[in-house]
Amino acid sequence: MKADGIHLAGIAAYLPERYPTQRAVDEGAYGAEDREESGIESVPVAGDTPGPDLAVRAAGTALARSGHEPGDFGALLHSSVHFQGPDGWSAQHYVLRHTLDRPVTAVEVRQGCLGMLSALELAAGRLMATPDGPPAVLLTSGDNFSTPLVDRWRASKLFLLGDGGAAAVVSRRGGFARVLAVGSVSTPSMEELHRGGETLFPPGPTVGRTLNLEERREFWRQEWARGVPPPMGNFGDTVAAAAHRTLAEAGVTMADISRVCHIGFSQFPLQASFLDPLEIDEKRGIWEFTRTTGHMGAADPVAGLEHLWRTGQVDTGDLVMVIGASPGMEAGCAVVEITASRYAEGDDDHA
């Protein structure tokens, strides 16, 4: 979707203290060979801080940076991957209460790790469709994976799970970056890959089943060995399709892109699923950042862009691709143009 007059007015990430992966190896929680293969040096671990509170902390900084007042907002879109709190409770309205505290709609975007990019697409569409309405939408995300239902060190060979929050203010009024285009591409034939042999009912968490994506991958390896072909499709092809379509809608090419903000996969999966399909190297991506954070669910793309912005690695006129993916299988992409120099204030304690 080509965006018209849509900006990022404020952006922020809240990262708890990083937990070195070597420490996890020394404590027996993580294998030394797995650590070496992943290339991940640390992940943020939030202890007993709830995921929604991580989102609230990031939102406070993003709002302060944006120059917007609570009355400017027409909606809040909250994303998460892991459990947020009590069953049947509304995390998005908790975040709304502790940020804008306004009687506007608050919606949870359950789009896995693609949540914040999907929320950006929804926010841009809303703002363009209602030119006389409130000029801003607040996007938030927050996850804490420190629960008995997930082992952050062994849930998947593709990534290590990190805790964190992120927030962005999407605005018609201006900001530090202009959104040129945002959109997504799905390959629904691949949904079985993330389901494996698990039944749909009763849902796994209701009977105490933990999140173990490696077991689901092993299910398909065994099926293939028995002559049953796995679901057809290619992760990297879907990522590339989303990128190429968004570039075309933005009216630019990959050669025009200065940096790429990707999700926090481990080194080889990142190369195979994102870097190679986009034909870029680690330096053009943000591996130097994500190797210290791991995969923070839906917060990854916004946290990566905030990192480039805060550290001055992008400046006025630079084009940045923000790209992610989720089970489904779906990939999303945004192309933004940096329109203002980096933040001058010293509020980067947790970035």
TrEMBL record:
Lineage: Bacteria, Bacillati, Actinomycetota, Actinomycetes, Kitasatosporales
Protein name: 3-oxoacyl-ACP synthase
Single GO MF descriptor: 3-oxoacyl-[acyl-carrier-protein] synthase activity
InterPro entries listed in its UniProt record: ACP_syn_III_C, ACP_syn_III_N, Thiolase-like
GO biological process: fatty acid biosynthetic process; secondary metabolite biosynthetic process
Annotated spans, Disordered: 28-51
Every Beta-ketoacyl-[acyl-carrier-protein] synthase III N-terminal domain range: 108-175
SUPFAM superfamilies, alphabetized: Thiolase-like (SSF53901)
UniProt keyword list: Acyltransferase, Cytoplasm, Transferase
Domain of life: Bacteria
Beta-ketoacyl-[acyl-carrier-protein] synthase III C-terminal domain sequence ranges: 247-338
